[in-house]
From TrEMBL:
Keywords: Repeat. It holds the Pfam family PPR. GO terms for biological process: mitochondrion organization; RNA processing. InterPro entries: Mito_RNA_Proc_CCM1, PPR_rpt, PROP1-like_PPR_dom, TPR-like_helical_dom_sf. This is PROP1-like PPR domain-containing protein. PPR repeats lie at residues 186-220, 256-290, 291-325, 326-360, 361-395, 396-430, 431-465, 535-565, 698-732, 768-802, 803-837, 838-872, 873-907, 908-942, 943-977. NCBIfam families: PPR. GO terms for cellular component: mitochondrion. Gene3D superfamilies: Tetratricopeptide repeat domain (1.25.40.10). The keyword Repeat applies. Residues 275-411 form the PROP1-like PPR domain. It comes from Salix brachista.
Length: 1071
């Protein structure tokens, strides 16, 4: 009968399965001998090549009872082996055969009609399965199968048994099967039953069945034993499993690799890694060839047991035999390599993994990111994250936390914040470490408020604060300089355990910054009593306090105590203190070669603060005797200057002069410059006088002295110093000349500045672009525009490249000289040469366009500036608004106001003035007055200039009543009307014939306004028009005495006959 099951399309050939050669013709005279030479992996997938022969049965005298049934079982086992879930991602799965719909219908019909096993076998299978769900008293297998007595062969009964899904049906059918004449005891049928019991956890029944198999004389083979072992492993009966395993070892039965895999996997799931390793070693002794899954389980257990070297050895063996490790193995090995700081090994594993095109998991990526973070290779970390995104590897909270830290180290604080928000939005934010990572990033950026808010959010979500959280919280309060909160946090940290050295250092620094030196000292005494282990940072912090307070004995005692600390053995900072305080002269000479400069400075500060001048001079002598001693001392003085401790800098300078030495020029120049910035000219002069007579006096010292004079406002003394140095035959450099010219320009001594510029150019001094810029600007301030242009041309002729400041100044030179074409030429030259023009250059050019009345060109240039990415500021908007306002283009001014609000630039008083001017020029009086009211509402007080434009507009329109009202508002606002406002009102009265009002207005302002030609002339005309010749004569005589010419062409009532065409009605209403 044809074995149809072997041709099932659900049974793909195993790997490397070679087709068997065609059998040779059998000689009919020879009797064929059949034997089972193939493995029987009944219920487990071993990953081996099934076609590979195995040794024959150990007892060839007792052949298997039914070889055909054995082949059925082998085929079924092959099918199950491909479906096992315990083989990992490398497990083979059935290859589904593509059939046409007609073929599929035929296949189902064949199965339905029993062609696979035979109709009677299919009927028997269904009949037995029908017992499922019935009660025990309803189960009568003998009655149920009465119609099949004598019709089923042994092989067919085995098929019926293995096709059962319930253990009760299998048990009852097996009992009926044993009563049939065709039945004979066989290890195969018992193996089938063992498998069924093992799958449902009926271990007791399986054990009874196995004992029964032994009682009937069936010798268990490796398949039966393997099935039993797998049953124990599946249900976690490890003690029974090992007992049974010991028994089959005594019988020298070697189970397949699939069985070992099952046992290893079961032990690992229960975290019995030690037993996994023991079983693995026994398996190796039996020379059972492991497969990929075996290595994955074993290497994982070796890693978790801490057997790192053996894990790598096993990994290398796996690679040697040609197996490709799974991603989980790479992940484990990379993780332990990064934990042991073996970066090279981790990178080698990752590169090997990539060579096999294995996509890393998020756990592997987290380990690699940790490595890159610790090695500060941030570019590779970001590159890896980009690869994760491209390969759609989902990041977890650990990876996001690492990214936040990396962005913080790179100073990309906004990216760190975005990553934190993305973590929260994705629902992954739950771990305290992620919150604290973000808080530390905020601290790195100096934003302690945001750091505290992150910790507050963490508290609100009931996340318990760990010791590390309190440390970060303390850092926040120390940066905030919130002493009470910092002390409370430190107390809370002390309750958890003894505070760490870093937290103690933060508290001391906080006390020092707040000027609480005594508290800092008491705190140091407390932590020293507590036997705290000092680290480098804490030692440095404490010793700084001692040195700055002159606590010599405390410093010596601390250095002595720390000498027993092995962690300070290679610390240069500590070794410098130790050798200077306790070393001999020879040791001191050697230590100066590799001494820590900060430590030397602190020691010097300690001696100076302590007032021990003897030790100070001895220490300075010691330093000066070294090869680069003077450089070291100068560097120490520079440190004092940077810290603002000028007293110590002066003391060291005085000691050096006594020792017949002097500081380096740069240090002396720095000291003079500091005195200049602090407006201490006398001290600066004293330092300069000490070196002024030196034959090697150099420019840095002279320049710093000139700069000090300028900063103290003594421009004349700066000029005298310049002349003194010049008389001594010393030539200043470009920096010094520039300072002197600037000083003269600020003091208004333009001729002297011009003389220096001419002399510098004639003597062909080595000038630079900065010096030429100063010269051009000085002549611009002096109004010597032609000379400024000639300096610029001379500069170009010498091949100097103008800077953006040069172009800016020259635009002003040509613009002020009304040479707009030249200014445009300079601007275009700067653009063509690729100079990156700034906002000032653009607005300078726009300003001169506006003054020339070329508002269209100004508008285009303003738009171009914005296209270049330059965002206009308040000054730029002011200039552009004035350009439009002078032409009365109020619509454009309104648009600019809206643009300013969008850009976050609130309009100021000057902007509102331009808007009022624009409305006034367009006779929009109502809008102009409304603008002034808006200013008041926004708290911006209007000035006389705002009212002036409105008054002129009203007067021009002939609206004198409204003009009088606005003028009264000006007075009620507490403003004193300026000359222009008074002119506007008097002009209105005169032009429209309001003689009496005009005379009254003149008499009101006569005493408060200075003598003005128009006002006094208008008064004369008004008095004459009113017939008051005497008063007119008095005013006229007054003008003569003041030598003010009279305006004879003025006329009273000039516009009475010609009323203004401008109506009071406006677009929005009537005044």
């Amino acid at each position: 009968m044809k074995i149809i099951i072997l041709e099932s399309p659900f049974l793909p050939p195993p790997p490397n399965f070679k087709p068997k050669p065609k059998p040779k013709p059998i000689n009919p005279d020879k009797i064929p001998i059949k034997s089972s030479i193939h493995p029987d992996p009944w219920s487990l997938s071993d990953g081996n090549n099934i076609s590979k022969p195995k040794p024959k049965s150990r007892n060839p005298k007792n052949p298997l009872s039914d070889d055909n049934a054995r082949r059925i079982i082998i085929a079924k086992a092959r099918y199950l082996s491909l479906l096992r879930k315990h083989q990992g991602p490398q497990a083979q799965t059935p290859k589904w055969i593509k059939r046409t719909p007609e073929q599929m219908v035929q296949y189902l019909e064949d199965d339905r009609n029993g062609h696979l096993y035979g109709k009677h076998v299919g009927a028997a299978i269904k009949r037995v399965r029908g017992l499922a769900g019935k009660k025990n008293e309803e189960r009568d297998m003998r009655l149920l199968m009465s119609g099949f007595v004598g019709k089923l062969s042994f092989r067919e009964m085995c098929v019926v048994l293995k096709e059962q899904k319930g253990w009760r049906e299998a048990r009852d059918f097996f009992s009926w099967m044993k009563l049939q004449l065709s039945y004979h005891p066989s290890v195969i049928v018992y193996t089938i039953l063992l498998r069924l019991y093992g799958q449902v956890g009926k271990i007791k029944l399986a054990e009874q069945t196995f004992l029964e198999m032994l009682e009937v004389g069936c010798e268990p083979d490796e398949v039966a034993c393997g099935t039993m072992l797998c049953s124990y492993a599946r249900w976690g009966h490890h003690r029974a499993m090992f007992s049974f395993y010991s028994a089959i070892k005594e019988r020298e039965i070697v189970v397949s690799i699939a069985v070992y895999n099952f046992m290893l996997s079961s032990l690992q799931k229960k975290s019995l890694h030690g037993k996994v390793i023991v079983l693995w070693r026994q398996m190796v002794e039996k020379r059972v060839a492991p497969n990929n899954f075996t290595y994955t389980v074993v290497i994982s257990s070796l890693v978790k047991e801490g057997l790192r070297e053996e894990a790598f050895k096993t990994f290398n063996e796996m690679r040697t035999i040609g197996l490709v490790p799974e991603e989980v193995i790479y992940s484990l090995l990379i993780t332990i390599s990064t934990k042991n700081r073996n970066w090279h090994e981790a990178m080698r594993l990752y590169e090997d993994m990539r060579s096999h095109r294995i996509v890393p998991s998020k756990f592997t990526c987290a380990s690699l990111l940790t490595m890159y973070y610790k090695t500060k290779d941030y570019s590779k970390a970001l590159s890896l994250f980009t690869q994760m995104q491209s390969k759609k590897i989902a990041a977890d909270e650990v990876i996001y936390g690492l990214l936040i830290r990396i962005f913080g180290k790179l100073g990309l604080y906004e990216d760190a914040q975005k990553t934190f928000e993305e973590t929260e939005q994705s629902g992954l934010l739950s771990n305290e470490k992620t919150y604290l990572a973000m808080a530390q990033v905020h601290l790195s950026s100096g934003n302690f408020e945001k750091a505290l808010s992150v910790i507050e959010v963490m508290k609100s979500r009931n996340i318990w604060l760990s010791r590390f959280a309190y440390i970060v919280l303390l850092q926040c309060y120390c940066m905030k300089e919130d002493l009470d909160s910092a002390e409370a946090t430190f107390q809370a940290l002390s309750k958890i355990g003894y505070p760490d050295a870093g937290s103690c250092s933060d508290m001391i620094n906080l006390y020092v910054r707040l000027g609480l030196t005594e508290k800092a000292k008491d705190f140091i005494v407390q932590i020293r009593k507590g036997q705290l282990d000092f680290d480098d940072e804490l030692f440095s912090t404490v010793i700084k306090v001692f040195c700055k307070e002159g606590m010599l004995k405390d410093a010596e005692q601390l250095v002595y105590e720390m000498g027993t600390n092995a962690s300070f053995k290679d610390n240069r900072f500590f070794k410098t203190f130790s050798k200077v305080m306790y070393g001999e002269n020879k040791e001191l000479e050697n230590i100066m070669v590799s001494a820590d400069t900060m430590a030397l400075g602190l020691i010097l500060s300690l001696y100076l603060e302590n007032g021990n001048f003897t030790k100070t001079e001895e220490f300075l002598k010691l330093i000066l005797e070294a090869g680069s001693g003077l450089s070291v001392v100068s560097q120490l003085v520079n440190n004092f200057i940077r810290e603002g401790d000028l007293f110590k800098a002066e003391e060291v300078n005085g000691h050096l002069i006594k020792l017949g030495s002097r500081l380096e020029d740069e240090t002396i120049a720095s000291l003079i410059s500091v005195y200049g910035r602090q407006n201490k000219l006398k001290q600066a002069q004293e330092v300069y006088a000490a070196v002024a007579d030196s034959p090697i006096l150099r420019n840095p010292i002279i320049n710093s002295m000139i700069d000090a004079c300028v900063k103290c406002g003594k421009f004349e003394e700066a000029y005298l110093l310049y002349k003194e140095v010049l008389q001594r035959g010393h030539n200043l450099d470009a920096v010094g000349i520039g300072m002197v010219v600037n000083a003269l320009t600020y003091s208004g001594k333009h001729p002297e500045a011009e003389n220096i510029i001419c002399r510098s150019i004639q003597d062909r001094m080595e000038l630079d672009t900065v010096a030429y810029n100063i010269f051009i600007k000085a002549m611009l301030e002096a109004g010597r525009l032609h000379f400024a242009a000639s300096i610029y041309e001379h500069m170009l002729s010498l091949g100097f490249t103008p800077s953006i400041q040069t172009y800016n100044t020259m635009i002003s030179v040509y613009g002020r000289g009304r040479k707009l074409d030249k200014a445009v030429e300079v601007f275009n030259m700067a653009c063509s040469l690729g100079v990156s023009l700034d906002e000032k250059a653009y607005m300078n050019m726009i300003n001169y366009y506006g003054k020339a009345g070329k508002r269209h060109e100004a508008s285009l240039l303003f738009a171009k500036m914005q296209e270049e990415g330059i965002k206009p500021g308040v000054v730029s908007y002011n200039i552009m608004v004035k350009v439009y306002a002078m032409s009365g283009l109020y619509h454009e001014v309104e648009d600019l106001f809206k643009a300013m609000e969008r850009d976050g630039c609130p309009p100021d008083s000057s902007m509102y003035l331009s808007l009022v001017q624009a409305y006034s020029e367009s006779s929009k009086c109502l809008e102009a007055e409304e603008t002034i009211n808006v200013m008041r509402k926004k708290g911006i007080p209007p000035s006389c200039a705002h009212f002036k434009h409105l008054l002129y507009a009203l007067v021009k329109a002939g609206l004198m009543i409204e003009a009088e009202r606005v003028y009264m508002e000006l007075l009620s606002a507490g403003l004193n009307p300026d000359l222009l406002c008074c002119r506007a009102m008097l002009r209105g009265y005169m032009d429209y014939g309001h003689v009496e009002k005009g005379i009254k207005f003149f008499e009101q302002i006569r005493e408060s306004v200075k003598a003005d030609r128009f006002i006094m002339s208008a008064a004369v005309h008004l008095y004459k028009s009113a017939g008051k010749k005497l008063e007119a004569e008095v005013v006229f005589e007054s003008m003569k005495n003041l030598r003010i010419s009279f305006l004879d062409e003025l006329e009273v009532g000039l516009k009475i006959q010609r009323p203004s065409h401008v109506s009071r009605a406006t677009d929005q209403g009537t005044i």
